[in-house]
Write a structure and sequence with these properties.
Main location: cytoplasm
Enzyme class: transferase
Bound molecules: guanosine-5'-monophosphate, magnesium ion
Number of domains: 1
Number of strands: 9
Helix content: 10-25%
Order of helices and strands: HEHEHEEEHEEEE
Number of helices: 4
Strand order of the largest sheet: 4-3-2-5-6-7
Largest sheet: 6 strands, mixed
CATH topology: Rossmann fold
Catalytic activity: IMP + diphosphate = hypoxanthine + 5-phospho-alpha-D-ribose 1-diphosphate; GMP + diphosphate = guanine + 5-phospho-alpha-D-ribose 1-diphosphate
CATH class: Alpha Beta
Pfam families: Pribosyltran
GO molecular function, one term: glycosyltransferase activity
């Protein structure tokens, strides 16, 4: 179901957006992920850490479907590169407030692309001695991987396209789109 009205509102004078996953597609998939997480962590209280800013919308919807006494925290990560790609290095820019030692941590990411951010994040977390670390990413682009990282709970595997909406940005815009779109403008990225 293509919501043309929704696209046109945000599309005036900017690159073409093509609907990839509707709000409904996302809702259905989130319920499945949340049910698996609820089963896997039965009896435990995981610490769900969202990676700012892209994972905020996904995390907000995901945690409301998880039936566990979980806690929420956030971490800031910054990668050197253009607005649309990472170019080899990622650093932590703001720390979670919770103590991490001994916790069952679920990292919530918007998308895993080259894997560079996630690898840096895993190394950072490992140095804080959690009991376990798993990753839940709404989107996974395995064809772009440059470092091997595992995604334990992946929403959708997508092809090598730049996507926006539902938390994902291009130059800080489009995060508030309720669905996920591909950005059909080859000039703005290095693909
Ligand atoms: P990675 O380190 O795996 O290459 O990607 C880290 C970050 O790059 C993601 O968390 C996301 O912020 C950004 N990124 C990668 N691919 C896309 C994409 O298709 N769209 C958007 N908006 N951001 C992306
Ligand atoms: Mg991210
Ligand atoms: Mg971004």
């Amino acid at each position: 179901m293509v919501d043309t009205k929704q696209t046109s509102v945000y599309n005036a004078g900017v690159p073409e957006l093509k609907l990839l996953y509707t709000r409904h597609d996302i809702e259905v998939r989130i319920k499945q992920l949340a049910s698996r997480i609820s089963d896997d962590y039965n009896g435990r209280s995981p610490l769900v850490i969202g990676v700012l800013k892209g994972a905020v919308i996904f995390l907000a919807d995901l945690v409301r479907e998880i039936e566990l006494p979980l806690e929420i925290d956030f971490i800031g990560m910054s990668s050197y590169g253009s607005d649309t790609t990472t170019c080899g290095q990622a650093v932590v820019t703001s720390n979670p407030t919770a103590a991490l030692d001994g916790r069952d941590i679920i990292i919530v990411e918007d998308i895993v692309d080259t894997g560079i951010c996630l690898k840096a994040l895993r190394e950072y977390l490992a140095s804080r001695h959690p009991a376990s670390v798993r990753v839940c990413a709404l989107l996974d682009k395995p064809s772009r991987r440059r470092v091997p990282v595992a995604v334990d709970y992946a929403g959708f595997e997508i092809p090598d396209k730049f996507v926006v909406g539902y938390g994902l940005d291009c130059a800080q815009r489009y995060r508030n789109l309720p669905a996920i779109y591909t950005l059909e403008d080859n000039d703005v990225r290095e693909y």
